Amino acid sequence: RLDVNRQAYRKIEAAPQIDDSQALAKTTEETRSLVDELQQLASDGPDSGELARQLTPRTADQIRQQVEAIRGADRDASRAVAARKMGQSLDRLSEALARDSVARSAELDQQQIAAQMEQMQTRDQGLRDARQIVQQTLLQQRTIQREAQLDRRQKTRYPSLGERQMKLDQDLREAMNDERSPLRGAASECQSARAAMRQSAQTLAAKGDAAPKQAGEAADQLQRLDDALEQQQQRDDVADRQAVREMLQKLSQRLDRFAQAPDDVTPQQKRETAGQCTSVGTQACQMSGSGGGGGGGSPDTAGAPKPASPTGTSPPNGSPPNGSPP
Description:
Elements lengths: L1 H13 L6 H24 L5 H5 L2 H16 L3 H75 L7 H20 L9 H19 L5 H50 L6 H23 L37
């Protein structure tokens, strides 16, 4: 709308004679409406925004006065001069909007990268914790199986082994009840493991001859559960590698924009970008060093930002911002 309004005043400047007074009234009324909306937009946005700096109350009043000057001009020459001044005023507002748009885009980009990194790390840690629980449970299950096998003749320890078996089932159930637990993504395997453990506990309590076999079946089901979680880790690893590639590309493009217009870059943008280059780069290096558990090589770093940041983008004293890896 602003661009269309600017073009209308250029046409008036080039041909100031008025053949259609209604068209002129429509153009100037649109200008008034735009100024009101832009003032509201500036007041809702950050005080440091370019639009807020350009569209002060005094500037808005001047534009409204220019509107009246165009409406009240009784000579073509006067109307052409007023239209030129109006066009210049609108040009400055348009440039301010464009700068704010770029800044907002960079801010959203930074927020998206930060959110992706947090989500990636949280998911990875959750799967690690879930596998640790399952592997510890599996280790204890193998112990129950072994002890049941050794006591298969006397069966004097079967009742206590059954109690331990029930405790393992209860612990796994509690882990599954956590809404954030990755175990919920392997619900079928979890249920099969728990069913096998309950059957093992019942057989041990009854001192049944099949107790060692039942305990072994429970261990096998826990192993299948751990395998399912490992496969989920591998799938997530593939997705994370792609996400890191995209983040590196975004950071590279952002650094290119900084290099093209260094005076437009705020100190906060420099600090945040330097910190994200560090954290995303560290993540890429860790993936490369992990050997590709998900079946993919190291992230493609073509087009990625170089380790050394451009002049003016390093944090004070050369250290990354708080919360970034050293």
